[in-house]
Amino acid sequence: MFAKWFVVLCGCLLSSTSVQAVDLREVREIYLSGRYAEARKLAAEQFDAGIWNEQWPRLLIECQLATGRYAEARSTYENAIQRYPTSLTLRMLGLQAYRFDGDSKRADEATRQFMQLLQSSPSRYASRDNLVAAGRYFAMRGEDARQILEYFYDRVRDADPEFIEAYIATAELALEKGDFKEAAATLAKAEKFDANDPRIASLSAKAWENTDPAKASQFLSAALKLNPKHVPSLIDRAESEIDSEQYESASESIQQILSVNMHEPRAWSLLAVLAHLDGQYEIESLMRAAALSTWRENPEVDHLIGKKLSQKYRFAEGAVYQRRSLELDPDYSAASFQLAQDLLRLGEDENGWELAQTISKDDPYNVVAHNLVTLNDRVRGFTRIASDGIEVRMDPAEAKLYGGAVMDLLREAKGVLCEKYRVVPNAPIVVEIFPEQGDFAIRTFGLPGGAGFLGVCFGRVITANSPASQGASPANWQSVLWHEFCHVVTLEKTHNRMPRWLSEGISVYEERQREPSWGESMTPTYREMMLGDDLTSVSQLSAAFLSPKSPMHLQFAYYESSLVVEYLIEKHGLDSLLKILDDLADGISMPDALGRNIGSTEKLDADFASFATELANDWAAGAEFNRDELPDEATPEQTKTWIEANPNNYWALLAKAKSQVAAKDFDEAKLTLQRIVEVGAVTGQRDGPLVMLADVYRKLNDSTNEQATLVRITTLSSNALDEIERLIQISREQSDWEALLRYGEQYLAIQPLVETGYRAVVDACTHLDSSDAGETTNQSRERAVAGLTALAILDPVDPAGVDFQIAKLMAKMNRNDEAKRHVLKALDEAPRYRDAHRLLLQLESGDPQ
What would the pLDDT profile of 84-96 be if each residue is shown by its tens digit? Predict the structure, then answer.
């Protein structure tokens, strides 16, 4: 521990010595720009000439390490350390040289010597360079990050606010601990002092990749513009290309890295990943061996391979690699934490949470580990519902309300989808539903964020947001869980070896098969995108999920993927799709699987483009959608003229209707909106033409057409909560109890946490029971009891009345003991409740009727 000797060190004056030599600055700029050979030559000349400045051998070693000249770096270090024995920065470079030159014994000796020097005479190592180097040394040892910041990096920055290396080291430490916000803020300050250092932009890309991928991409591009040979940035680019399934591009990026440094272990590690994803397991082993050829005990190699495989949802394979990494270095925290996450995503909760707890205890500054451990305390309090190989974990209050409905839906999904895709799950399936979006994000991604995600499937583990986390307009939770369970089935069938687009496409397609209003469907915007430049070729579809231009483009990627699946099934049959999935499970690449079963990827790209174009043109064929003639910044008069000149143009009609509604000219608005319906350009979109038309009918007191329009909306949208609530009101007014029951249940499929849907179900079932219509009497009573039980949980205004209603229904079903319990609860709440007294007497006499 460094705290003892640092008491002496912090009393020393920080050296502000800096080299003013223009030549050194110029050569360092050459190095930072990626002209390594030139920088190496110039630095070597200065060092060989005996110029007394330790920064020359440091720069020379950096050039040699960057280009894989590890033996030369070692030789340079051994010569230089004789001249500059107090340079800790030089010693850290020497440590790297020994490791990558394959001399672990000397590396271990150098590590021990580093600590001995610090303990023997701390005042000799008080320069800003040495303090940063010492901080990096202690970070490497896994010491307390907060103390490293306080004792080293912050003190250097306080003494010299423009010393870039302190900012770089701070950002590196923050990124290692998962504190991306701190890393981004630190790097933003560093950029003000040196905008030409590619490390700043490269690290900034890492800081933003989880929260703002577009911004991260801009930083990565900036880093490579500053230095096209910057290996860390090229590694990040190759990783991103692997994530988006651009494997040829990734291979090209890796070749660029190897042209800079033939021995770069991360490049060979990524080649091992590509080989694994292509099912070439012998080549994978060779690539791993190449990655370890210079430093056999390098734990980063297996960690990186495993991390990338886990990002491809191959958690079992990823966990194997993390264990290999830990065999090489049991203290390598990155591998330990990745293993914890892999285990949690594999459903091995006990081991996963225990490992996360250990990591958090050993490293309290690890933000992600801390988040997970804190979350586990809450998850332990969840209610667990188990049935048919499925375990649902929910907030206790929510579980009481709709936990049974969740399990019923999941059991249905398992029966339907497992049979269709010929899958028999061989392990339990876990579904966790979180009432707090932040908890969902931490469980799913390790960090707050993830806005827009409703659910995520890791294979046999599903995480989802409950309606409580989604504000006033929640998504249909049944649709979400059906979608995610379909992922369970297809990932199980393929052993998690399927491209992102195919996995998402099948899930959205199966949503529509279960219920036409679920999943994505055609809209005017989608039509425009399909006929424009936004239709992505099938071979590039996975990339559309990783780096979409906008949230709309991401949403469109889901829809387009589902259309590809629809096309494959319509054109080639379900059996062909199942054979593709079987081939993927056998390790066959996606292009080869397609070629074996339906044809080449190139042919699929062309055929699907024709299919999509025809589909888009056929939708709302009576409408026009061209907007080219309307100026981008049209005046109101130009807009009016254009609208009048295009009577069947969707965009003109929509603009006209909005103008009429704004002017409260509802009669004219009705005619305009009816015209949009006539040409077929209708969807269930919020604030779309049908929603506007229903509102216009209501304002005109045309309840018949309002109702018909609302019904149509609910057949097109799974999330039309306001429209369903209005239909509940209308059904009550019309005493249409079967419709009231139907809409009550539709309401609960979206929002099961408020009274509205339950009251509709109870009222409908009560009246259907009285009229002996609709369902059988006992079924109707059971549903009414379930609804009343939920109302009792929701803190009703009249709890005694709710218990009394339950008691009456129980009595009608001859469940007298339960009826007595509820009538007594009613009397406990309202002792003078006369009807409850009468019912109790009837129950006691044995004649509750």
Answer: 998 999 999 999 9
